[in-house]
């Protein structure tokens, strides 16, 4: 399986991070050089880089940037402070906190050293980055195997879960890529994904680049497409999966899953084990990010809502496990997810 050449996150050997600015896609390809942990946190907050695994990878490199700036033996407080700043950048995707915890473990191992352990931290960040790509390729095959149980079909996806959102290949979009290459998918329906338009600007662009047939539609066309029998699987990613299998993902996923159940469309969630949060018993306890009112009141510079109107702009919602047919992660598939299935799978993934 060839990996798409899109590179949202690149560590440069002179000691800085290069991010593809996803705010400018698809019409402009701009990159942003990030040289500090503060800069990495701001890039995550401002959505230069977005998507749960990509946020975690960027934060890990952000810790390396903090370590590079430390001089002398009292390096640890500066790096810990950077971790606190990075952790405050976005609240919902647990991959951010998972990656920072991995970096924290490296700091703990090297805490008595005289200089900041830059080499060890960089190796840890690179491992997180590389491992995410490997996991995506594995999940791609596992998800494609599920689709192969029945005849080739068209699928629907929401938001962007592709190379742009991950270490490469993608989670839900990775399954779509793998299944397409195996002849299991006839067409992809990409939802626009209001208000930030990840589906229109990023997913449609990624698929189009690879010649995978894609049709873009407004989010509210999804139920009509399902009613017309045009969708076999709804395939989405996740930002955090609770211990009982409830899934936080891009706003609109809950409505899609309800519609899918009504119309007999199967629902697949694709996420690496770094997206699971066993500390959270159910989706009710997952923090839901709300973003700037301007995402609704403006289209670019144009004002599209009355001035000073009340705005509610949650950017994630929670889909109950009961509406999900399968969660695919790197060590296997949880069919009809529940607490027992999730815990068993995560213990297998983490070797406990
Ligand atoms: O707000 P975003 O663009 O970071 O939201 C992204 C999503 O909701 C994705 O579906 C999720 O992070 C999975 S990405 C592999």
State the order of secondary-structure elements, H for helix, E for strand. Answer: EEEHHHHHEHEHEHEEEHEEHEEEEEH
CATH topology of the largest domain: Rossmann fold
Assembly status:
single chain
Give the N-terminus to C-terminus distance in angstroms.
31 Å
Can you tell me the CATH class of the largest domain?
Alpha Beta
Q: Helix fraction?
A: 25-40%
Number of strands: 16
The tally of structural domains comes to 2
Strand order of the largest sheet: 6-5-4-7-10-15-16
Largest sheet: 7 strands, mixed
Which blocks of ≥5 consecutive residues have pLDDT under 50? none
Give me the number of helical elements.
11
Overall average residue pLDDT: 97
Please tell me how large the radius of gyration is.
20 Å
The secondary-structure class comes to alpha/beta
Ligand identities: 5-S-methyl-1-O-phosphono-5-thio-D-ribulose
Q: What would CATH call the architecture of the largest domain?
A: 3-Layer(aba) Sandwich
CATH H-level superfamily of the largest domain? Translation initiation factor eif-2b, domain 2
What spatial form do the alpha-carbon principal axes imply?
A: globular
Pathway: Amino-acid biosynthesis; L-methionine biosynthesis via salvage pathway; L-methionine from S-methyl-5-thio-alpha-D-ribose 1-phosphate: step 1/6
Catalytic activity: 5-deoxy-alpha-D-ribose 1-phosphate = 5-deoxy-D-ribulose 1-phosphate; 5-(methylsulfanyl)-alpha-D-ribose 1-phosphate = 5-(methylsulfanyl)-D-ribulose 1-phosphate
Pfam family, one: IF-2B
GO molecular function: S-methyl-5-thioribose-1-phosphate isomerase activity
């Amino acid at each position: 399986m060839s990996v798409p050449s899109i590179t949202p996150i690149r560590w440069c050997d002179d000691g800085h991070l290069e991010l593809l600015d996803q705010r400018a896609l698809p019409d402009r390809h701009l990159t942003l050089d990030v040289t500090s942990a503060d800069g990495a946190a701001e890039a995550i907050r401002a959505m230069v880089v977005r998507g749960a695994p990509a946020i975690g990878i960027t934060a890990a490199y952000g810790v390396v940037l903090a370590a590079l700036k430390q001089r002398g033996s009292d390096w640890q407080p500066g790096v810990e402070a950077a971790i606190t700043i990075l952790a405050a950048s976005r609240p919902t995707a647990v991959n951010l906190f998972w990656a920072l915890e991995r970096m924290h473990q490296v700091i703990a191992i090297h805490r008595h050293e005289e200089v900041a352990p830059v080499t060890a931290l960089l190796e840890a960040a690179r491992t997180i980055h590389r491992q995410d790509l490997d996991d995506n390729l594995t999940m791609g095959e596992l998800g494609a195997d599920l689709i192969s149980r029945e005849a080739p079909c068209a699928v629907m996806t929401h938001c962007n879960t592709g190379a742009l959102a991950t270490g490469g290949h993608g989670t839900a979009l990775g399954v779509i890529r793998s299944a397409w290459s195996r002849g299991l998918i006839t067409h992809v329906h990409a939802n626009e994904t209001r208000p930030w338009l990840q589906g229109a600007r990023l997913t449609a662009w990624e698929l189009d680049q690879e010649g995978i047939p894609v049709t873009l539609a407004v989010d509210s066309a999804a139920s009509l497409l399902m009613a017309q029998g045009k969708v076999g699987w709804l395939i989405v990613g996740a930002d955090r999966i609770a211990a009982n299998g409830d899934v936080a993902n891009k706003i609109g996923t809950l409505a899609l899953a309800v519609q899918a159940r009504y119309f007999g469309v199967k629902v697949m969630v694709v996420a690496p084990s770094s997206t699971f949060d066993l500390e959270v018993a159910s989706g009710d306890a997952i923090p839901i990010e709300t973003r700037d009112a301007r995402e609704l009141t403006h289209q670019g510079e144009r004002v599209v809502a009355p001035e000073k109107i009340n705005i509610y702009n949650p950017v994630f919602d929670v889909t109950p496990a009961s509406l999900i047919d399968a969660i695919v992660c790197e060590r296997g598939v949880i069919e009809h997810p529940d607490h027992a299935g999730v815990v068993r799978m995560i213990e297998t993934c983490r070797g406990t």
